[in-house]
Amino acid sequence: MNFRQSGLSLVELLIAILVSSLLLTGVVQVMLAKKDTYTFQQAQSQVLENSRFSISFLKDTFEKTGFRQLPQSLKMFVFKQKGGSADCATFDEGQVIVASKTGIGVCIRYQEVVADDVDCTGAAIGDAGNPNAAGYAEPVIERIYYDATTNELLCGRDGGTAFPLVSDIEDFSLRYGIDSNNDRVADKYVAAPGSGDWTKIVSLRFDVLAVAPGNINTAPQVYRFPLDAANDTTATDRRIYRVATQTIALKNIVL
Prior knowledge:
Layout: H1 10-62, H2 75-78, E1 97-99, E2 104-110, E3 140-147, E4 152-157, E5 163-166, E6 169-178, E7 188-190, E8 201-212, E9 222-223, E10 233-234, E11 240-249, H3 251-254
Antiparallel strand pairs: 1-2, 2-3, 3-4, 4-5, 6-7, 6-8, 8-11, 9-10
């Protein structure tokens, strides 16, 4: 009696398993590649958004420096001398920008722009109807600074709680444009103005180094911070870094 074999032979079964394994491996590799691409794009979007927001916020806030509701009013009458606090250095008469006592940053003074204006934390200022002894609206004092311990940019009113504006900021640089010859144009930029230079500040230059969490890059990134630095920096990890910079004239001072 002859018996006829049916089904798959052992060789055919092994070949089928091999082909299936190869196909499955290819599918897994495609899925992992898509996941890596998605993660990279998300990290890029995050670091781009943080750097853009930081620059935009700092620009909008710093441009308020020295604003007067009546432009013809002399600064010495609007901005009286104010002693230092735990947050800010002493403001001399007419002075509208001093150093922050914590982190890298400044304290600025300005008058409320409109009746329902808000400060950098989003809280209502409410000082337009609160004149000082000279009859001028009481100036607002805001403090904007970078905390290297928490890697955050923060802002708050003088004497009040500072709130984080943006996190994942690896480094921050702030330089002051000094007008040495009274032509209302910065002749030099310094990180630490001398005692006689604070009243000569006409512009600010700030650089933000934003970073995305997680080792996303295949190799450490090379960047230059600040952008006008003499040498490149090689990261010690594989995170994504982005440098953003802005220079602004303090229009309420120079005009």
